[in-house]
Design brief:
Elements (H helix, E strand, L loop, with lengths): L1 E3 L6 H8 L5 E3 L1 H20 L23 H12 L3 E4 L2 H15 L8 H13 L1 E3 L2 E3 L8 H11 L4 E4 L2 E4 H8 L10 H6 L3 H31 L9 H5 L4 H13 L18 H4 L1 H22 L8 E3 L4 E3 L7 H29 L21 H17 L21 H33 L6 H13 L10 H18 L5
Parallel strand pairs: 1-2
Antiparallel strand pairs: 3-5, 4-6, 6-7, 8-9
Helix pairs in contact: 3-6, 4-5, 4-9, 9-11, 9-13, 9-14, 9-16, 9-18, 11-13, 13-14, 14-15, 14-16, 15-16, 16-18
């Protein structure tokens, strides 16, 4: 059971809820804070005090006053009008993350929402009722308005949900579960959609996949070292202590562990004095990507425990402030950083693939072909990797440097953080396929060198790989092999390697 307090959620807890379907519950203390905040909103409405989003319009309409009799209509109209997302829906995993993060943020007690609304978000999580939320349409400031509006629609019994493996009308799922649609009261619609939970949920899922990718990319790089008789002196601890980066030191340590006992690697001067950068600089390059990922994790763990709606209610309603915590700039920049870090893991992996298949760079059969010339072997797998790497370079263009004014220039600078998070996820999927291609090529190279000479760790990785992807004894359609290998690598981390770092 994961207990939500609004302040203590971690990325690891997010993992257990969204992937492991761990049940969720709100802490007693956080519910008390929510109740106090809601009472403050009720007093504001009763006293006729003018407060943005409670009894005013939204955005450029913030100066339009709303009668007390229409406060509920205001919230309903808000949700319906803002639910204009387009494109393919987020995955169920991301939808679960959005439910979790929105509930946790509201439990901080600054939003004026009833506990009943938060209970429904948690109930959806625990009963696996997942809102169908289109991916496109958010500017990443004023909150993720369009995506979160599609989430909010399901609270009032509208829109669609993923339920028992099918997309159904929310009303049908609620009816089957014996639940009634909820009617939103003052500020509740705004509190549900004014936040960064779409970009943060997508970002958290992307981070977890990137962490997995960074881990398996090192393992496969170790096998490539064997396939190319790489020089292990470059991983000597003294080299990395001399520079001082923690993540670089840790990467070198893991490389030494993966290659322990190998009779395929070499020492400085045995075959050559030094290797190319894509081998020699694995700790420096992969370590730098780990630095970026650690930064991203730090920002995500702040954001998943942040109050990001507007206005925020303090001191039992004595202080209600319209601010800008909904602005997604911190996550937008973090996602753009992650895009670059992951793209680099694919870049250096593709360079290692080239060294495995190019006969001018090694003494292996050209393109690892069983009959060079008659059969192309891994030639076009390197093409595929190069294509994916090039695509990543376009996706890595920072989304956060763009901004388009909205709401008649009231909202004149936005983050585009949700675009950044979505593109980060795409880059990670492409990069995993590049790493899978390196794995296939590294296994083939290891066979030419002699698999009996492999290190204990890489030998196990080789045996597992060969259960998935047969040796290249003649040309075949390799597309399925790449997909099979990449999907296994994604699953491998979840099942076996969560704590490898």
């Amino acid at each position: 059971m994961v207990i939500l307090t609004g302040n203590t959620l971690t990325i690891e807890a997010v993992r257990t809820v969204i992937y492991g379907k761990e049940r969720v519950e709100a802490s007693v203390e956080s519910i008390k804070a929510v109740e106090k905040s809601h009472k403050a909103v009720k007093r504001i409405v009763a006293d006729g005090k003018i407060v943005y989003g409670i009894n005013t319009g939204f955005g450029k309409f913030s100066d339009v006053m709303i009668d007390a009799d229409h406060v509920r209509d205001l919230q309903l109209n808000l949700i319906r009008s803002h639910a204009c997302g387009v494109g393919e829906p987020f995955s169920e995993v991301v939808s679960r993350a959005m439910l979790l993060l929105r509930a946790n943020a509201l439990l901080k007690g600054y939003s004026g929402i009833r506990p009943l609304i938060i209970d429904r978000l948690i109930e959806f999580l625990n009963r696996q009722i997942h809102p169908v939320i289109p991916q496109q349409g958010s500017l990443g400031a004023s909150g993720d308005l369009a995506p979160l509006s599609h989430l909010a629609l399901t609270i009032i019994g509208e829109g669609k949900v993923m339920y028992k493996g099918q997309v159904v009308d929310t009303a049908d799922a609620l009816n089957e579960e014996g639940l009634c649609p909820l009617e939103l009261e003052a500020k509740e619609g705004l509190a549900l959609i004014n936040g960064t939970q779409a970009m943060t949920a997508m970002g958290a899922v992307a981070y977890l996949e990137a962490e997995r990718l960074a881990t398996v990319s090192e393992m496969i790089a170790a096998m490539t070292m064997e396939g190319l008789n790489g020089i292990t002196d470059a991983f000597d601890e003294d080299v990395h202590l001399a520079r001082g980066y923690k993540q670089q030191i840790e990467t070198a340590s893991r490389m030494r562990a993966y290659l322990k006992g190998s009779r395929l690697t070499t020492r400085q001067g045995e075959m050559r004095v030094q290797d190319a950068y894509s081998l020699r600089c694995i700790p420096q390059v992969h370590g730098a990507s780990w630095q970026a990922l650690d930064y991203v994790k730090e920002k995500l763990e702040i954001e998943i425990n942040a109050a990001t709606d507007n206005p925020l209610i303090f001191d039992d309603g004595a202080k209600v402030i319209s601010g800008g915590n909904f602005h997604g700039q911190p996550i937008a920049l973090a996602m753009d950083f992650m895009k670059i870090a992951v793209a680099e893991l694919a870049n250096i992996s593709e360079r290692r693939i080239e060294r495995l298949v190019n006969p001018q760079l090694n003494d292996l059969p050209p393109f690892l072909s069983p009959e060079p010339g008659l059969q192309s072997g891994a030639m076009i797998m390197q093409y595929c990797a190069a294509s994916l790497v090039s695509e990543n370079k376009t996706l890595a263009h920072p989304a956060s440097v763009d901004s388009i004014p909205s709401s008649a220039n009231q909202e004149d600078h936005v983050s585009m953080g949700t675009i950044a998070a979505r593109h980060a996820y795409q880059i990670i999927q492409n990069a995993m396929k590049v790493v899978a291609i390196e794995w296939i090529c590294a296994m083939q190279a290891a066979e030419y060198r002699g698999t009996e000479k492999m290190a204990g760790f890489t030998s196990k990785l080789y045996k597992t790989g060969r259960e998935l992807v047969p040796s290249i004894e003649k040309d075949r359609v390799f597309s399925g092999d790449i997909e099979t290998a990449s999907q296994w690598l994604r699953k491998m981390q979840n099942d076996h390697l969560t704590n490898i770092r």
